[in-house]
Every structure is written in C-alpha cells, then in structure tokens.
Amino acid sequence: MADGRSTLRRLNFSSVIPSNILQTIAIDVVFPYMAYQLFMARLAAPLALLLVALLPLGHVLWQYNQQRRLDLIGLVALYILFWITLGALVPDASPLLLTVLHYVLPIGILGIVTLLTRWLRRPLLFYVDRYCHAHTPDHMADYIDYWQESASYRQMILRMNTGWGLGQLLFSFFVLLLFFLIPVAFSASIILVTTCLFYIVLTMWSVQQESKQAAEWDKMNSEQDPPAIGS
C-alpha cells in the first residue's frame, strides 16, 4: 500500500445500506417474489420457481460480465430458490419434510460452509463485508490491503464469521425443535417469522461490530492526520 492513510480513508464502514444494494435486493428478491405471485396463478409451482430464478440468475451473470463482481444477493436468492423448488418437486411432502428442506438444511449447510471458510485465505464474511461497502476495483483492492495490515479488522471479520456460522448452525437445530413444540397448523408461519427475526438480529449485531470498527478507523485517521499549519 503506497499510502496507508489514503487507503484507510477510502474504506467505508457506514451502516447505511448503499443504494446499489437496495437496487440489487429489488432485482434479486422483490421482483422475483412479485413475478412468482403472478406465475403461480397460471403455472405449476416448480415451473413458476424456475422462471422466477431467471431474474437473479440473469442479474448475477450480467453483473459479473460488466463488473467482474459476483452478485452475492443474487447467489443467496438462487440458493433459497433451489431449496424451495426441491420441496415443490417432492409429491405430497409432509410439513416436517418441507420444514427440513426450506429451513433446516439450507440454514444448517450455510452455517457449516461459513464456519469452514475461516480456514481459507479470507473467510466468507470478508467478501460479504467488501461486497456491501466496496463498489470499484480500487475500493476492493483497499479492502484486501486493510485485511492484510489491520489486525483489528481481521479479528472483527473472524468474529462475525464465527457468529454467523455457528449462529446459523444452532438455529437450524432450533427450527427443527420448534417444529415439534408448536401445532402443525401454525408451524409454517411461526418458523418463517422466527427465521426473519433471527437474521434481523444477526444483521444488527454485525452492524454493531462495524460501528466499533468505524470508531477505531476514525481514531486511527485522526492520529495520522498532520498538525494544522500554524498550530
């Protein structure tokens, strides 16, 4: 890094959701959901889901072709659609099997994968963090430099990676337990709401971790700033 201070200044730890992330959520999540509601009235569920998957798939391919950048939100949407489609392809699936296919397996597998990436060169949450904040090749390179040079940033990412990985793994078992504790008639709604709340809490915890890192980053910049002329 030629100029450590200038690189650090270009990093963005803001907890505000960038506009491009909101646009991506609309393309990969909101529009497919709306399209699914329209298709379901005319098509079988598996075919409707396959058609809906074309939206995030097309956006993932377009973004990679244009920016050489993976659309992580689109990949997550495709991952979820895969499990939903798998459940739709099983004839006369029981509520327990649907719960396993829609929640237990996808959440548990994602948790295990997240934990395993801790032993890679950079863990999964590093790429997620960079995806949320870096939007140009220069900014993406800055994050790699910061990962290599800042021990506190590495500790934060590893802590978040462990939290998301272990949290999702344990939550998948909790969902299975919850299924057996509540009436089947209410299980689908309660598990859906509980899952949404779980990810909201995880996200809020991650934002808190980012805020602490931002405070340390600001302190580091203030210490590196040269004294004002004439002071």
UniProtKB/TrEMBL annotation:
<keyword id="KW-1133">Transmembrane helix</keyword>
<keyword id="KW-0472">Membrane</keyword>
<feature type="transmembrane region" description="Helical">
    <location>
        <begin position="39"/>
        <end position="58"/>
    </location>
</feature>
<feature type="transmembrane region" description="Helical">
    <location>
        <begin position="96"/>
        <end position="116"/>
    </location>
</feature>
<feature type="transmembrane region" description="Helical">
    <location>
        <begin position="12"/>
        <end position="33"/>
    </location>
</feature>
<protein>
    <recommendedName>
        <fullName>DUF3159 domain-containing protein</fullName>
    </recommendedName>
</protein>
<feature type="transmembrane region" description="Helical">
    <location>
        <begin position="188"/>
        <end position="207"/>
    </location>
</feature>
<feature type="transmembrane region" description="Helical">
    <location>
        <begin position="163"/>
        <end position="182"/>
    </location>
</feature>
<keyword id="KW-0812">Transmembrane</keyword>
<feature type="transmembrane region" description="Helical">
    <location>
        <begin position="70"/>
        <end position="90"/>
    </location>
</feature>
